[in-house]
Structure formats: structure tokens, C-alpha cells
Design a protein that fits this description.
- Helix 9 (159-172) packs antiparallel against helix 10 (176-189).
- Strand 3 (296-302) and strand 4 (307-311) form a beta hairpin.
- The strands form four sheets. The chain has a nine-stranded antiparallel sheet with strand order 2-3-4-16-12-19-10-9-5, with helices on one face.
- The relative contact order is 0.10.
- Helix content is 34%, strand content 17%.
- The protein is α+β, with helices and mostly antiparallel strands.
- The protein is elongated.
- The longest helix has 19 residues, at 20-38.
- It starts with a helix and ends in a 16-residue tail after the last strand.
- The chain has two domains: 1-209, Tetratricopeptide repeat domain (Serine Threonine Protein Phosphatase 5, Tetratricopeptide repeat); 281-487, Jelly Rolls.
- It is built from 14 helices and 19 strands.
- It is found in: Endoplasmic reticulum lumen.
- Its cofactor is L-ascorbate; Fe(2+).
- Its main location: endoplasmic reticulum.
């Protein structure tokens, strides 16, 4: 049975990484389902061989942290893209309560089992997040009811487990009457459970005394205290490749620039394209001989903040080389926290740093960035190339690239603040993964092999508040980017101050 399940997961090799439900299930199969089979009563005849084979590869398998992280990733996708849990369990990525087309339609629909849904709900339950535990455990209970009596040895949970956790979740959420009915249903299947029997008595007394708190709508936890969450999620939900409120190519005629990908958000009215005369597409040489024979294909996305997209900035072969160089060195990404750096839930990705001496491709890419931006990238005026991989639900909540405090680790380079960012898309994704500029109210979908450029600082050296941006969670696919952060020292004559001190 287990072999058939694993074989079914690998029917479409290309889809195994793209579909987050499939990725979660693969991790769960390898971390918990397989050991359950190995140590089950049915395996006793082949115990020694099974255990030996499992021990050989145990260190290579996903751990508990991987599985819990995958469960949190599904909850993140549920939240940011407003997905229906019932839909996700049925392999459909549909917004809850909406008649819109699915945000992502996998080539092969993959369903989550009752045990899968229970595990996601349990991860939320264990952290006191009853908002998520209720939705996922409800689905687990519903699926367990349908298959009651046909228990699988690879499952860790059962209908009784799901009812028990769901009842307590409702109790903690203030819905005593529903907690009572679920506990009574539990006792129907397991009448001898004294703990649940005591809970039933407790819930009945609370309801009789009228001291039970009336159940209000459950609020979603905001663990990172993100103030701009609504705007961030609204921008992430914009379907890729569609133009926003401006209704056109933002001053970029289709016959000149067919790939205008800017998505405008709903928060503020946007000027019509004819009122944005500076937005255009052009071939740029930037006054350097390096670009004479092959000019850069520049699309102006926004004037304030200044954001430009350079199409076909890197070749497929170069992108694969950079991914291959970075792969063995990937580590969980960290963020600045005061004077230190640490892991954080609001940035889920893996990253590695590449020096320009790592490979001729990296060196050529650095020269190209210098030519296009006109900035000095020699050490210590720029950081090494950072290669980032955003896998299952990978994201980076709204943040600034430039330091907002003099105590930031960025100043250890002794070359000032980050004046500019170049972000190169090394891969395509099937859905999600846009770069959303929160205060400026627009987002840019992933455009494979293109480079996104923006100024982090104004000409007077102050940080530009309009560059608050986020990496939306990857809904389907495997997102790779390469970041080049350029510092202000060394650029004094390349981007001089303006005569207006406010500029």
C-alpha cells in the first residue's frame, strides 16, 4: 500500500516540486508515514530487513522541523491567497467564498488525506493558533468520518484524535456548545475515555451557569505584527500577467514592449497611462561601450519609487550555472535584528553568497550589472551576489533593503547604506512569488531571466519609504533569485546629490 502511494506521487516528475500539496505530502510520507509502516505490526515478518533499510537512509530524510515548516507553509498560502481549506484538501487552489477561477491549476490534481489535514491542524494547535487548527481539523474530521473503519497503519491519527483536538480548539475559541457536541461524538466511539467524559461534564456546567463566553468570529493571528498585512496580501493575490487599474501597458505600447507585468493594487486610484508620460520601454546603452552591440531591454515600471525591469538580462545557461554554484552552500536565510542576524518566520528561504571569483559567469554578470546601473561594484562598494531559493510557501514579508538604523550589520562594510538593489529572476514559477511594493501600491510578477532594479535611497541619502517591498509566497513552483546590493560609498560622482536637499 505504501509503495503504491509513493509511486502515485511520482507519476508526474515535473509536478513533484511545483504543487505545494504534493510537496507537503512527500515530506510527510518520508518523515512520518514510512516509519509508521516500518514499525507496524504488519511488518513483523520482515522487521530486521525493513529496519536496516530504513536506518541506512534515515539521516537523508526530512525531519520534524521540515514537516512542521511544510504545514506552516500551507497555512501561509491559505492566508495570503485567501484559499479555501476544503478546496486545498481537494487539490483546488480556489479563493474561499469566491467564484473566481483558481489561482493555480496543477496538471494532476492531488488530494490531501484526513491524516494530512490533521497534521496541519495539529501544528497550529500546538502553538495555540486555534484560528487555523479549527479550519484544518474540521476538514480532517470530515474526511475521517467518510473513511471510518478503514484505518491505515501509516496514519498517526484517527477520527477520535481529530475530534479531541477540534473540541478543545472550539472550547479555547469560546464556542462551548460545539466543543460539547464534538466531545459527545468522541465518547460515542470511545466511551471509556475518562478525560473526555470529565470535559463533557465541565462544558455542560458552563452552559448551565451561563458563564460560557459567546463565540465571536475567530481572528487570524498576526505573529509578526505586520501593520501592512492587508495591503501586502491584496497585492499578492493579483493574478500574474494581468494589468491593474490603469488598464493598459502603463505608457508601454504592446508593439514595443509586449511583456508589461506591473500589477496595480486597489488601495489608491492610479493615473491613466496617458498621464504617465515617462513610463516607456527602450534599448539602453547607458553610455558604455559594453552595451553598444547588445543594449539592455529596459522597461520603466515606476518613477516614484524608481523601479525598472531589464528583460533577458541573463541567459538560461547562466541562470543554471549560478543555481548550481549556490546549491551546495544554501542555508536558511537570516534577517537583521538590532546588531545581530537571526532566522525569522517572516523570511522563509535559503540563501548562499557567491564571490565574483567563484566562476566566470558570476564575474560576467557583475560586469553587466555595473554597465546597466552605471555604479561602482568593486569591493567594498557592493556585497557579494546573494542567491536565494524560495521553496514550498517561501516568502519575505514587507521590509526595506536599506538599513533604517545606524546599528545595522550593513554598516560593518564601512561603505555606507545600500543605495540600490538589483534582483535577478533565475527561474519561473507557476503561481505566486510576485515582488510587491506596499506603499507604492503595485507588484511585479516573476519574469524569468529579467532583472528588477530600484534605488533604495534618495539623492540626499535618506531612505525611500516607497521602497517597502515583499516577496509574496510561492504558491506553485520553485523560485530562485540573485540579489546584488550596491552601497552608497563609491557612487558619489556616479549618482551625485541634487541641488535640492529634499530630493
Amino acid at each position: 500500500r505504501f509503495y503504491e502511494k509513493v509511486q502515485a506521487l511520482h507519476q508526474d516528475p515535473k509536478a513533484s516540486v511545483d504543487n505545494p500539496l504534493l510537496a507537503f505530502s512527500l515530506i510527510k510520507r518520508l518523515h512520518s508515514d514510512w516509519p509508521n509502516v516500518i514499525y507496524s505490526d504488519e511488518a513483523t515478518e520482515n522487521t530486521q530487513a525493513l529496519h536496516a533499510g530504513f536506518k541506512e537512509v534515515e539521516q537523508e530524510l526530512p525531519g520534524a522541523e521540515d514537516l512542521d515548516g511544510a504545514a506552516r507553509a500551507l497555512m501561509r498560502l491559505q492566508d495570503v491567497y485567501a484559499l479555501s481549506v476544503k478546496g486545498m484538501a481537494n487539490g483546488v487552489f480556489q479563493r474561499a467564498g469566491a467564484n473566481c477561477p483558481p489561482l493555480y491549476s496543477p496538471r494532476r490534481r492531488f488530494l490531501l488525506s484526513a491524516d494530512d489535514c490533521f497534521h496541519v491542524g495539529k501544528v497550529a494547535y500546538d502553538t495555540g493558533d486555534y484560528y487555523h487548527s479549527i479550519t484544518w481539523l474540521e476538514e480532517a474530521v470530515s474526511l475521517f468520518r467518510l473513511s471510518y473503519g478503514s484505518w491505515n497503519p501509516e496514519d498517526r491519527s484517527s477520527l477520535e484524535d481529530a475530534l479531541d483536538h477540534l473540541a478543545f480548539s472550539y472550547f479555547m475559541a469560546g464556542n462551548i456548545s460545539h466543543a460539547l457536541s464534538l466531545s459527545r461524538e468522541f465518547l460515542h466511539y470511545d466511551p471509556s475515555n475518562q478525560r473526555v467524559a470529565r470535559n463533557v461534564v465541565k462544558y455542560e456546567k458552563l452552559l448551565e451557569m451561563g458563564t460560557a463566553v459567546s463565540a465571536g468570529p475567530l481572528r487570524r493571528p498576526n505573529g509578526t505584527h505586520l501593520q501592512s498585512r492587508d495591503a501586502y496580501e491584496e497585492l499578492c493575490q493579483r493574478p500574474g500577467g494581468q494589468v491593474g487599474l490603469a488598464g493598459g501597458c502603463h505608457g508601454c505600447p504592446s508593439h514595443r514592449c509586449p511583456l508589461s507585468h506591473t500589477l496595480l493594487g486597489p488601495l489608491t486610484p492610479q493615473p491613466a497611462p496617458e498621464h504617465l508620460p515617462h513610463l516607456s520601454c527602450s534599448y539602453e546603452t547607458n553610455g558604455t561601450p559594453y552595451l553598444l552591440l547588445q543594449p539592455a531591454k529596459k522597461e520603466m515600471i515606476r518613477i516614484q519609487p524608481y523601479v525598472a525591469l531589464y528583460h533577458d538580462f541573463i541567459s538560461d545557461a547562466e541562470a543554471e550555472t549560478i543555481k548550481g554554484l549556490a546549491g551546495p552552500w544554501l542555508q536558511r536565510s537570516v534577517v537583521a535584528s538590532g546588531e545581530k542576524q537571526q532566522k525569522a518566520e517572516y523570511r522563509i528561504s535559503k540563501s548562499a553568497w557567491l564571490k565574483d571569483t567563484a566562476d566566470p559567469v558570476v564575474r560576467a554578470l557583475e560586469r553587466r550589472i555595473a554597465a546597466v546601473t552605471g555604479l561602482d561594484l568593486r569591493p567594498p562598494y557592493a556585497e557579494y551576489l546573494q542567491v536565494v531559493n524560495y521553496g514550498l510557501g517561501g516568502h519575505y514579508e514587507p521590509h526595506f533593503d536599506h538599513a533604517t538604523s545606524r546599528k545595522s550589520p550593513l554598516y560593518r562594510m564601512k561603505s555606507g547604506n545600500r543605495i540600490a538593489t538589483v534582483m535577478i529572476y533565475l527561474s519561473a514559477v507557476e503561481a505566486g512569488g510576485s515582488t510587491a511594493f506596499i506603499h507604492a501600491n503595485f507588484s511585479v510578477p516573476v519574469v524569468k531571466n529579467a532583472a528588477l532594479f530600484w534605488w533604495n535611497l534618495r539623492r540626499n541619502g535618506d531612505g525611500d519609504g516607497d521602497t517597502l517591498h515583499a516577496g509574496c509566497p510561492v504558491l506553485a513552483g520553485d523560485k530562485w533569485v540573485a540579489n546584488k546590493w550596491i552601497h552608497e560609498h563609491g557612487q558619489e560622482f556616479r549618482r551625485p546629490c541634487s541641488v535640492d536637499p529634499q530630493d
